[in-house]
């Protein structure tokens, strides 16, 4: 049986995985997405910033 890591690697090499990766990279570059992530992390951390 393939390990979970092997299954993830196989998915990322597939056309579907490449498409998902490209979308994730595009979202990561978007300033609005970055701001949402920072707000979420601040909320999870209790509002403290280091």
Which short descriptors sum up this protein?
50 residues, 3 helices, 78% helix
In the predicted model, the low-confidence regions spanning at least 5 consecutive residues are none
How much helix is in the residues?
A: over 70%
Q: Choose one word for the global shape.
A: flat
Strand percentage lies at under 5%
Sequence of secondary-structure elements:
HHH
Rg to the nearest angstrom?
Answer: 16 Å
| Count of DSSP H/I helices | 3
Report the average pLDDT across residues: 91
- Structural class given helices, strands, pairing? mainly alpha
What's the short story on this structure?
By secondary structure, the chain is mainly alpha-helical. It has helices at residues 4-13, 15-29, 31-44.
Question: Your description of this structure?
Answer:
- This protein is mostly helical and 50 residues long.
- Helix content is 78%, strand content 0%.
- It contains three helices and no strands.
- The protein has helices at residues 4-13, 15-29, 31-44.
- Helix 1 (4-13) crosses helix 2.
- The protein is flat, with a radius of gyration of 16 Å.
- The model has no long low-confidence stretch (mean pLDDT 91).
